[in-house]
Structure formats: structure tokens, C-alpha cells
Amino acid sequence: MSDHTTHKLWGGRFSTPTAAALEALNRSIGTDYRLWPFDINLSQTWAVALWGAGVLTLEESKKIERGLALVGQKLAAGAQSLPSDEDVHTLIDRMLHDEIGDVASKLHTGRSRNDQVATATRLWSMDVCTKLDVAVRALQQVMFDHAATLGDVLMPAYTHLQRAQPVSAAHWMLSHFWPLERDRARIVSASRAAAVLPLGSGAIAGCAFPISRVLLQGSLGFSSVSQNSIDAVGDRDFVAELLFTVAMTATHLSRLAEDLIIYGSSEFGFVQFGDAFTTGSSMMPQKRNPDALELARGSGARAIGDLTTLLTTLKGLPSGYNKDLQDDKRVLFDAVDTILLVLPAVAGALQEIRFNNRRMRAALSSSMMATDLADYLVEKGATFREAHTAIGSLIRESEREDCELDALPITSFKAAHSLFGDDVFDWLEPARSVARRDVPGGTGPNAVNAQLRSAKEALRPVADAARGNELVLRAV
């Protein structure tokens, strides 16, 4: 059994000490310690609310506020927890008692660790959404800069990892920009989901004292208050939404990394990796390994695992607070910490990459313009199915002859379909193929320029005006 002195926020009905094995399992200070700035903030606000409700005198409220500020200064200076500190709330409560004495015992009036931890976690989540947006936008800026300088460089686009059609390299780069833009929208949504105040819900039935939840909401920067105390203390939807956002971002980073790893191989040679974000081999001196990108690719699995862990935990819980929810922060912090490491590493790796325009252009072949030949026949009056069949016969002939389409004689084209004329070889030029696809969202020059303008606009900082005490939900 544990015999050391504790400063627990509970235990009045127990006559024997808690088993050491349970204390070891139950202790979460190693995980939730990072919540201390948010716990101090909400506790100071709670002290003001208790004064407003007539529970504390003005002098007591101010004394608690000042004491919490001193605790915050000590924690910021590196004050460490004791073995008796069960969690960050117990830590702060103990330190507050050391600073101001017994009046500190009045702070916990009307609140529970259930609504306290939910509030602190929501505040942390709202804060980290801003950091995530900054990190994602920084990577997008690198993508935009590359796309803007690639100009009229052409490369193959792939389906099923087989050469499909020529596209502009800028178009390919921007194909990774827009998924991140959707991620930023999800970050805003996750911040909005977190911005619902649970403080004042108590353990499960609400606070018995007439505290002003509207005052709490405005002071802490929440956009609304929870509607149901039972739901408020057990709700971790906001954690799940943030974890999904991180998992989706990690998935997008993994796909970008996979493209770059493939394109950086000797077999492709489309890109050359730099020195700062690659490593070497302990045995082979010639190696340059894209470790930053490979670790980014691997982190996607970890983020998905964190999301799955939380959802699996939530699905079996009855209503209200349950101790299982203590693990929500383990997966939340792990996922966010990981993505905040990965994002700048990917941005750095991408920034120092150099594109090999010659290798990309050399990878284009006339057979990739097969669809253009079909379009040629359609413009001459053939149906697309008829044109598809004709081009298929030309592909088979080029395979038999082991040559490209543009190496076949004109007689082969005319034999495949009577509508082919001497101008057919003009349609086998990659630049012409790209230029013809100038619809919005396509790879044509005007369409790509429009994309660049839209991307530049997406990167422009947005400053939403707050209405009264409402939280600014757009992470900028």
C-alpha cells in the first residue's frame, strides 16, 4: 500500500490508503502536466465566478487569483511535480495551498475535475489549432513557391502508377496544395467544435451555485456554453474531430512523401533531394536517404492509430464521465506532437528539393497522347467508342513493332481509321495535349494560372472580427 502523504482532491470516504499499484496506474501527471497554463487560466476565471455567485468575498477571489499567478510563474520556471501529485489539477491545488493557505480550499467549490479537465483540454485544443494552421500554411507556401517557378515544365501524370497523360509540373504540385487547404478548413472546424464551454457542469448534474456561465464563456474565449451537463463532462467529440483532422493531414503528407520518394529514385530522377533533410548509409557511401519523407509517411499510421484508439474507447462508454476518458489526452497529445514535428520537416525537405526538368520531359512518350488521338477523331466526326477502338489497334501495332506511336507511318493511322489526316502527328505533342485541357481545374496554362491565383489568395492571412467576447474561430 502507498504510505506517502498525498494532497488528493478526493478520499474523504476512504479509511485505508490507496494501493500503490492503483496509484501508479491512476497517476496522469506525466501526460496532463502540459495543461497547467490552461488550468490556471480557467481556475482564475472560476474564482471570479465564485465571487460573482457570492461564494467568495472579493478579497478571497483576488487572493486566489494572485496565488494562481504565482503558481503559474513557478511552473513556467520549471517547478516539478511530487509523487503525491495525481494529476495537473492536484499539482496546482497543492502549490496554491502552499502559496495562500486554507483559502485555496474554497476554489474547488461547485466544480469537479470532470468539467475542469474537459475545459482545460478544450482550451488546449483551441490553442493548438492555431499552431496547426500556421504549420500547414507554411508547407503550402513551399508548394506554392515551387508551382510558381515550374512555369511550362511538363511531366507525366500517373494512374495505377502507370504513365497516363502529360500535365504541367505546377499542376502536379498544386494537387498536393488543395488537400492541405481542406485540412485547414477542418482545423477551423475542430477549433469551433472545441469552443463549447463545459465549466459549470460540475461532476454530472451542473453547479449548485449561481455562477455566470456566460461570464465564464466570454472570459475564457469560448463561443458557446454546453447545453447538457451529462453530455458536457463525457463529450470527447471535439477530441475525435481534432484527431481526425490530424489523421487526414498525416495521410495527405504521406501521399506527398510517397510521390517524392518515388520521383527521387534513380529510376525516375524527377527530383533531387537536398542535404539538410536526408541522411546517409552506414555502409554505402553513395546513398542519400529521404528519411524525413519516409518518417512522414510512417507517421500517418500512427495518427490513424491514435484516432482509432479514441473512437474504440468512446464507443463502449455509458453516459457521463468515466475514467477511461483519462486516456483521451495521451492519444491527442501524441498525434498533435507528431504532426507538429512532421509538418516542418516535410516543408524543409520539399523546400530544398530541386526538380529535374529534363528527366520529367524525357519521361513523356507519344503513347501518352492516345486520348488526344481519340479526341482528334471525335472532332472529325467519329464516336468516342469508335475512336477508342481505332487507337487501341494503333497501340497494339506500336507494341508489336516495339516503337512509339509517333514512329508509326501515316499509313498505319489511315488504316486504323479513315478520318486520320497528315496533321495527326501534331496531336502527339505533349505541350499541345496540355494546352487543350484548359478548363477550370485542368492542367492547361490558363487553368493553372487561375489555380495559382486561388492558391495565393488561400495563403493570405485572414483576420476575422470577433463579435463581443466570441472566439475568433478562423485559425490564422
Question: Could you walk me through the main structural features you see in this protein, from its secondary elements to its overall organization?
Answer:
The chain has 3 domains: 20-106, Fumarase C, Chain B, domain 1 (Orthogonal Bundle), CATH 1.10.275.10; 113-362, Fumarase/aspartase (Central domain) (Fumarase C, Chain A, domain 2, Up-down Bundle); 366-458, Ribonucleotide Reductase Protein R1, domain 1 (Orthogonal Bundle). The protein is built from 18 helices and 6 strands. It has helices at residues 20-26, 29-32, 36-52, 58-76, 88-100, 113-150, 169-194, 213-220, 229-234, 237-263, 291-315, 328-351, 357-362, 370-380, 384-401, 410-416, 430-436, 445-458, and strands spanning 154-159, 162-168, 196-197, 224-225, 271-272, 354-355. The protein has a two-stranded antiparallel sheet. Strands 3-4 form a two-stranded parallel ribbon. A two-stranded antiparallel sheet has the order 5-6. Strand 3 (196-197), helix 8 (213-220) and strand 4 form a beta-alpha-beta unit. Helix 3 crosses helix 6 (113-150) and helix 7 (169-194) packs parallel to helix 18. The longest helix has 38 residues, at 113-150.
